[in-house]
Protein: Acyltransferase 3 domain-containing protein
Organism: Tsukamurella pseudospumae
Amino acid sequence: MRAVAAFAVCVTHAAFWAGDYTPDLWGAAYSRLQAAVPVFFALSGFLLVRPWVAAARSTVRGGAAGRDGAVGRDGVSGRRGGGRDGAGTAGPDLRRYAVHRAWRILPAYWTVVTVVYVIYLWRPDGSTHGQGWVGYVRHMTFTQIYGVGYVHTGLSQMWSMCVEFAFYLVLPLLGAAIVRCGPRAWIVPAAMVALSVGWLVLVIETNVFGKTTRTWPPAYAAAFAAGIIVALVIDRVRAASWERWARWGLLLAAAAAFAVLLTPAAGPLDLRLPTTAQGVTKYLLEALIGGLLVAAFAVGRPGVLGSRPMVWLGSISYEYFLIHVIAMDVVVINVLHYSLFQGSTWTIVAVTSLVTVPLAWVLSRAVERLRARASAR
């Protein structure tokens, strides 16, 4: 799923470069592929909250919380001896959680940010944003979205990493709330959806905190909540043996939500500001799509997404996401010699991916080797 989502992000960026955000169905579809980013958020919500969900269920059953198994590369241990939530129940090991998250995102992210800044010591940059040490420190600390003028060329997609990073920081608190609420754990994602709606109404109506507020973490709380909801209900779906028709129903529902996203109800396709109703509708539809897609592939067999090529692409999808914008900038300007709003979307996608995939693999392998050496020490 991450591989598909990362590719969709690349396509929407290429379509913007090529000027294909046209006022027709194809232009709308290209533009709304931005919904792939909330899919990442829903995936994070689903994968990372599961140890706390397991702890909550163990508490309800009267057992020792957190004994349910670990969650693989993107999860944390559910073994006893971890951090304590407010109810005094043993939850996931927060130190292990922090170490896993740090290794997963920081080395690759810091490497790409640093390389981009070094490249632009020589490469001409038509933008004055994000320049100098202030811009660099902002990017390295995931704070470039908090204010206007800090996003550097080649790093525009990193706003989503600021949102992800904020979620990683607050997840232990959300998890503790889920464990404390027990059978009423749905209150937590419901509160997150309410936060998104309230935040969007506030910042669109008043512009109180400036122009960048629609990319701040509260705006996307509903997308993470969608993944958390899936984590809370998925076992019931499996237990009810709904897998045969559940996936197709969920995929059809996601397609219907995406169709609504193409309409004026979700706001303009270009950079014009939406009305409050349009903004809220757009963000909630994107969260719904993310949750439906995660749910669709969390039930039953993985199908084509479980094939070896897709699993391999998924394993480097994060690095692909980090690199593709600077690669696209070089490809469009220096290789294809396109001007802005000219050229072919799919030519840009193909050449950019041809460059980005091997670079993403090298970066992923380098981080894995670095981590192995650190673990050995």
About this structure: The chain has one domain: 2-376. Residues 63-89 have pLDDT under 50 and may be disordered. The chain has 13 helices and no strands.
